[in-house]
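Page 42, continued from yesterday. The earlier attempt failed because a stray header line got pasted into the input along with the sequence. Redoing it now with the clean sequence only.
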Amino acid sequence: MKRIGIYENASKPEAIHCAEYAAKKLIKMDAQCFAKREFLEKIDPQIAKNFTEIEESDFERFIDILISFGGDGTMLSAANLLLKSNIPIMGVNVGKLGFLAEYSIHDLDKALIDLIEGNFRVVDRSVLESVVRNETYYALNDFVVEKRGSSRMITVSAYTNDHYIGDYRGDGLIITTPTGSTAYSLSCGGPILSPSTKVICLTPIAPHSLTYRPLVLPDTNEIELKVYSPTGEANFVADGRTTVRIQNEETIKINKSNYVVKLVKPNNSTYYDLLRKKLLWAANVIDEPPKCDKSE
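This time it went through. Structure tokens are written below.
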């Protein structure tokens, strides 16, 4: 019997509805389902009574797989929750784009059958970590240093393995994993990086000079950042979820973590299929020539 955790975006009614629907299907397939009380109180009591209620912090102790219902933000929260375990996460997209949450609600029935029957693959995604004031932060997508409380530019001085890279003047700097390369970094002109590449990318945000371009480094390198802001402080953001106030001259060190996030993927889909589907990457923008009806 598979032990499956249900993790939903509680602020989205459609995510709760979709998770309830999936749970009903999973229970009929003899899966043992686990969820938080907050979720169980919002669904049909007849379905809820078949669940095992647990605290969010206990998921890693009891489940084999976690299904996330929401968007990429929900996936990032789930990844942070299970970071120190080897539990894979299956993302069901109830949001808009859903690049991390790859599974569509329109194909949910088949996806759940494949999950129970083991027709899926699990991929490892690299994670970044940073220690700020003795607190460790992790990012599956990216760390961002950005201006705070002012429209004026900040300067981020970047170093790698004690070698000076340069001063980035603008709205900030994104330090992204290959997984995060299709998120904020891409919108700022960063490259698309295949998830299997062992690199870290530095992408400037609204740089003051055209000479600033994204820089790709080996993920074995340590990155060190120092911030200079007219207000005396800036924001350090982990995966768009956690924000830390950084003071001028304070040093931020970023390294690849020893932890990885495990994601459930369809057997018959590749990363490039996902790019074409979600981002319309390499789509054929040339219209097919019209075909004449020879019978006329």
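Notes: The mean pLDDT is 92.
Reminder to self: strip header lines before submitting.
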